[in-house]
Amino acid sequence: MKKLIIQSVLLSLIAISCLDTSKKELLQSQMPSEIDEESLYRPNYHFTPKVGWMNDPNGMFYYNGYYHLFFQHYPDGNKWGPMHWGHAITTDLVHWKEMPIALYPDEKGYIFSGSTVIDFENKSGLGKDGQTPIVAFFTYHNPKLEKTESTELQTQGMAYSVDEGITWTKFENNPVVNNPGIRDFRDPKVSWDEASDQFVMTLAAGQKIMFYGSKNLKEWSFLSDFGDGVGNHGGVWECPDLFPIKVEGTEDTKYVLLVSINPGGPNGGSATQYFIGDFVGGKFIIDAKLAGKLPSDHNYWVDFGKDNYAGVTWSNASLKDGAKLFIGWMSNWQYANEVPTQKWRSASTIPRELRLIDLGDDYRLTFQPTKNIKEFYAAKLKKEVLKVDEKAVKVFDSKNIPLTSTKLSFTLKEAKNSSFITELRNEVGDTLKFGFDHLNQTFFIDRSLAGKTEFSNEFSSKKSIAPRISNNEDLKVTALLDKTSLELFYDDGTTVMTEIFFLNQPFSELWMKSKKGQINLNSIEVHELKIN
Ligand code: FRU
What we know:
Helix content: under 10%
CATH class of the largest domain: Mainly Beta
CATH architecture of the largest domain: 5 Propeller
Strand content: 35-45%
Shape: globular
Number of strands: 33
Radius of gyration: 24 Å
Bound molecules: beta-D-fructofuranose
Strand order of the largest sheet: 22-33-24-29-30-31
Largest sheet: 6 strands, antiparallel
Number of domains: 3
Number of helices: 3
CATH topology of the largest domain: Tachylectin-2, Chain A
Distance between the termini: 20 Å
């Protein structure tokens, strides 16, 4: 093997020496960093575009065995630019195949975020000869009008596919929804609403949500708006989602309204808040259990970490128990354009199962990683009980299980009196810490010493903090690690924290300690996720 590597290095050196000087310099400057970047930072099981910029997930739908993901994409640069819809598919939510670009910008503007709906009954008439049209809604963002005072810069466009989402035709009478005089007017999420017997479009408009209704997807009329005086208003509202969902363990159904906001997140920058209620007569009404609980500093957040934004749910993909499938963009507008990768920028979160639980006097969303990852469990380590105090102990290292594609879970006994701190370390001193502080009943992530941080002042100047929502006696912890991300699901996903990091070399050890006194960690399980 060594011989082979030496041979190939020699060959490439000979090849370089035959090139003219300028090309040589270019190649030499690219080679080592590109190799490092791929091996150090390209995630093992999170979606990234092969090249170029990515932000929000868009228009996800499930059809005929394939989960489709579209995404905000600028293929010609590694910073945000003229937006396209990139496209990727998967059959298992773990292996992704990037497809040709689905939607290109045109004379009406860039193609901003939006959604797709499968028009099973061909109510739009866009399907010919029995084809089922898949209809996409997106925001046209006109870069010329952006420079003026005009409020016409954002309108809603439509496109459709009659080959199961592979190729797309823009509708000839775009836009389908004109701008009512609001500069930020975007991110249409369209779904069929059984209860009101119509398609509903949920739109972000300034700092509120506007609902529109339609019978045929082509003509839309305004229904109502929502958002005055409720929830966080620290920034512009973006990328909403509205859907009914079964309350776990009951026959009741409630509506969930997700609203991304930038800035205004609980730990700075971008984040996604949620509201639970009913959608009656075209109006969203907050449930009585949440009344008064949603001032601007509320704690109804999809994720308290800094890196889960603009997430929405898949169309046509409910699980057997009624759970919905969700995916987010794993970055934050505070530094997304600056993170230290060159060839591509950003990854998506792991697809997550979203459920609604009733806590008696409250409703909460829970998020858990797709169960499909179990199919990829390889090397495994199990410990029934581990007693730990303030002196850190090494739980395992990369000789047993790699720390670049890993699922860790354990239970902290008696969370009222016990704190824990987990430290991920490598040989060059990079350290990422996360844990739980029982005195404040809060979780934290501290990435200030986890490799490269200097590209942005906002990246690690403060630890991220999240409240514990559950009152359970024991605290269940699930952590997913990839090369550049940590996703933490506490109390079966009642509190979630997602953050990215950029190490100088991969983590090689996982250590545990308590903040004070002895703690009991039970049912420790570590799995390598073997994803080829
Ligand atoms: C959210 C967002 C959307 C917009 C898109 C543009 O991250 O600002 O509101 O449609 O990104 O890329």
